[in-house]
Design a protein that fits this description.
The complex is a heterodimer of chains A (297) and B (300). With 297 residues, chain A is mainly alpha-helical. Chain A has 2 domains: 9-56, no CATH class; 78-292, MetI-like (MetI-like fold, Orthogonal Bundle), CATH 1.10.3720. Chain A has 14 helices and no strands. Chain A starts with 8 loop residues before the first helix and ends in a 5-residue tail after the last helix. Chain B folds into 2 domains: 30-65 and 266-300, no CATH class; 74-261, MetI-like fold. Classes of the chains: A mainly alpha (297), B mainly alpha (300).
Chain lengths: 297, 300
């Protein structure tokens, strides 16, 4: 019994002294060891955050290799001013892209999810699987003709194109999340509406939509985050002057010959603020979206 | 049988999405494959000034025979293996440590998970600094940190190593997604009914044996999901590599970067062929999984 579990002797003795044969804590990871391991993880995860914050407040003179890990000798906001000047127009464009894209793709996903989970028709599962595949394709496999299509449709590059693309390629994941959610609501609700003679559209608008709020929050957060963080479409369909903040940040960080790490890191923090705020305030729903992203557990 | 066998109203709601997916996913894939089978290698052809002719699978053969593209494929494998092993291992251990109630669990979970909310481009900014290849006096980043804690031997050129460099770029990816894998595994652990553990204990199994023979096997579906999700993300990796390295850097190039480089030089045919190759690699991973899920769904 003692040899099999990785238990520190002191802990084992202590546990024995307190309670005679407690079935749970007897074998489980000793608390101290768990805490040490968890804290080590915490420190490692926070290292890049420390670097980002500290470097963003350093003056040029402090940004030398020998002082790489030390705190700034003089704290300065210059990097932040520089980063703000470089990124603020792009931050605005990111908002213009992400908000409509998230809202529209959420509504489309909601309609699809409802039909595919609750108003089944022959072939619904096949249609769902075919839609879902769109979530996994590497967009590299459509990029060349997509470029041509946008030219042919005369969608202006930059904000309008990126809104359209985030809606289109957001449909699979939003459909998936809503479908899983609607599959979990009671049958009786929809049956009752059907008994009352409501058609599908009425049922959707008056019964299903009002109870969809939790899923809408999950989907909106998911779409907001992934569209905000997108770089691939931005690189192919916009320029530094028409694109979102990821593109502007990459230009700020990698564009100049002499790298200004202070301003780049202030910029990285600025560009991450909106998604981090969403994560901190609505973390519970954020995790909900992550789980739905796993198709099925 | 509650299902209504009527096509009309459902199609009305689905039609916009079906149409859009048909065009933007399946239609464009077809056009892309078509482009990849031509000799559309120059700007003049891309702009429709010079004629384009059909060359069959020649572009694929050329790509697969070229040492540069072979290097990309090798990098892709190395990157994916590092990324998968790192996230699955760390994510699993974190979930295991947090599985039993512990004070401060919420804080640990939130902090482990937060890098997921950050874009690859933003994390690339700080990781480019951390993975600075300078050593000795000029070292900064992690190499300097190694000196400070007395582990000088660990100093290395990171992503500037021609063979293993790409694995260094998997480190930030691991940093960003281990928390996600943890969340998946944690949900898996929590989904296992307590009765199963109890039954194992009553049968006289040690706690390790309960884990080994009762708990871990229950987590296989979660492992599969995590493998699929991280695996397909890895195969598509582009942002991190672009923000830490440069597209022109041979040591860190992968097919997704090649696709961009070909496109930038108006070699549309090669670019399309690389895209198609990526699609095939991803499909080999995803299609069986999707079919498996669809079967499971209709069988319930």
């Amino acid at each position: 019994m003692t040899a099999t579990a990785p238990v520190a002797p002191a802990e084992l003795v202590a546990a024995r002294d307190r309670r005679p044969a407690p079935p749970r804590s007897r074998y489980s990871w000793p608390r101290t060891l768990r805490y040490l391991a968890l804290l080590a993880g915490l420190v490692i995860v926070m290292i890049p955050v420390y670097v980002l914050v500290v470097t963003s407040f350093k003056t040029g003179g402090d940004a030398t290799p020998s002082q790489a890990w030390s705190l700034p000798t003089t704290w300065t906001a210059d990097n932040w001013v520089l980063a703000w000047d470089a990124l603020s127009p792009a931050l605005g464009r990111s908002m213009q892209i992400v908000v409509p894209a998230a809202i529209i793709s959420a509504f489309l996903g909601s309609m699809n999810g409802f039909v595919l989970s609750r108003w089944g028709f022959r072939g619904a599962d096949l249609v769902f699987t075919l839609i879902l595949f769109g979530m996994f394709i590497p967009y590299q496999a459509v990029m060349i003709p997509l470029n041509q299509l946008m030219l042919n449709l005369q969608v202006p590059s930059g904000v309008p194109t990126l809104i359209l693309l985030h809606i289109v390629y957001g449909i699979p994941i939003t459909t998936l999340i809503f479908r899983n959610y609607y599959a979990s609501i009671p049958h009786e609700l929809i049956e009752a509406a059907r008994m009352d003679g409501a058609g599908m559209l009425r049922t959707y608008a008056s019964v299903v939509l009002p109870i969809s709020l939790p899923s809408f929050v999950v989907v909106l957060i998911w779409q907001f985050t992934s569209a905000w963080n997108d770089f691939l479409f931005a690189v192919f369909f916009s320029t530094a002057n028409t694109g979102p903040v990821t593109l502007a940040l990459n230009n700020l960080a990698n564009g100049a010959q002499l790298q200004n790490y202070g301003a780049s890191m202030a910029g990285a923090l600025l560009a991450s603020l909106p998604t981090l705020v969403v994560y901190i305030i609505l973390g519970k729903y954020f995790v909900g979206g992550l789980m739905s992203g796993s198709v099925k557990g | 049988m509650r299902r209504v066998k009527s096509w009309g109203p459902p199609l009305l709601l689905l039609a916009p999405s079906i149409l859009v997916i048909a065009v933007f996913v399946y239609g464009l894939i077809a056009v892309n494959v078509n482009t990849s089978l031509t000799d559309n290698h120059t700007a003049a052809q891309a702009n429709g000034v010079a004629p384009i002719s059909f060359v069959g699978v020649q572009n694929y053969l050329d790509l697969l025979a070229s040492p540069a593209f072979q290097h990309s494929l090798k990098n892709l494998v190395l990157y994916t293996v590092t990324f998968l092993v790192g996230t699955l291992l760390i994510g699993f251990v974190w979930a295991w440590l947090l599985e039993r109630p512990i004070r401060g669990e919420g804080i640990f979970r939130s902090i482990y998970l937060f890098p997921m909310a950050v874009s690859f481009v933003a994390s690339g900014v700080v990781w480019r600094w951390l993975l600075n290849s300078n050593q000795g006096e000029a070292a900064s980043g992690l190499n300097r940190l190694f000196q400070i804690v007395g582990l000088d031997v660990l100093q290395n050129p990171w992503w500037n190593n021609i063979t293993w460099g790409i694995a260094a770029i998997a480190l930030p990816a691991i940093w960003q997604l281990s928390g996600y894998v943890m969340a998946l595994f944690l949900a898996g652990f929590r989904g296992i009914p307590d009765e199963l553990r109890e039954a194992g204990r009553i049968d006289g199994a040690s706690e390790w044996q309960v884990y080994r023979h009762v708990i871990f096997p229950q987590l296989t579906p979660v492992l599969l999901s995590a493998l699929i999700i991280i695996g397909h993300m890895s195969l598509k990796s582009f942002d991190l590599i672009m923000s830490i390295s440069r597209p022109s850097n041979y040591q860190t190039k992968v097919p997704a970067v090649d696709m961009y480089v070909f496109k930038s030089s108006y070699d549309f045919a090669s670019s399309a062929a690389v895209g198609a190759i990526l699609l095939i690699i991803v499909a080999v991973l995803i299609v069986p999984y999707l079919i498996h899920n669809a079967r499971k769904d209709s069988g319930r």
